[in-house]
């Protein structure tokens, strides 16, 4: 059921965005880590990175599967959240759908400086640096747009959500770079 004032901006919503950013980012990195471990690579994972402990993969072909695992998990998270929103009409789920779009959009922009997940994968497959990022972002945008209509969310809440996602992602990235907190 949609709450009467879906577009209200309150501390609960801000906290939900923070939780969505934190859990989504960690889950994305754990997907990289899990695929690496599954393929036999000893992996380490921090708040915003997952890498083989040795510095290289056991087999070069592992790189593409490990690279794909993070974005694939993030897209699957968004799909699940979209269907939960359609079914239950709960604004509390929205940050967990909205953040994957922001996350993959930011990753796409970072490709311009240094190839990120989708960029590395696109280059490896010979389809270009931005091709996969563009398709992933367009797909996630359609899910967010449809959920926005479903929940009757206004542009102000979307703008606030975008700003909060960016701020919390920058904070998480800064903490990861500054303190190098290893999760595993």
TrEMBL record:
Reading the lineage from the top rank, the first entry is: Bacteria
* Bilayer-crossing regions: 12-33, 65-86, 93-110, 122-143, 155-175
Which keywords are on file for this protein? Membrane, Transmembrane, Transmembrane helix
Q: What is this protein called?
A: Peptidase M50 domain-containing protein
């Amino acid at each position: 059921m949609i709450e009467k004032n879906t577009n209200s901006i309150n501390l609960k919503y801000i906290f939900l965005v923070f939780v969505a950013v934190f859990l989504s980012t960690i889950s994305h990195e754990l997907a990289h880590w899990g695929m690496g471990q599954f393929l036999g690579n000893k992996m380490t994972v921090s708040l915003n990175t997952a890498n083989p402990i040795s510095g290289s993969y056991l087999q070069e072909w592992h790189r593409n599967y490990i690279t794909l695992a993070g974005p694939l998990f993030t897209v699957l998270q968004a799909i699940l959240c979209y269907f939960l929103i359609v079914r239950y009409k709960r604004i509390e789920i929205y940050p967990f759908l909205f953040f994957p779009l922001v996350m993959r959009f930011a990753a796409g922009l970072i490709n311009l400086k240094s190839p990120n997940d989708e960029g590395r994968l696109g280059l490896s497959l010979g389809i270009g640096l931005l091709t996969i990022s563009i398709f992933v972002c367009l797909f996630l945008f359609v899910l967010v747009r449809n959920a926005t209509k479903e929940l009757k969310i206004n542009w102000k809440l979307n703008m606030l959500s975008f700003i909060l996602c960016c701020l919390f992602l920058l904070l998480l990235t800064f903490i990861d770079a500054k303190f190098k907190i290893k999760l595993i």
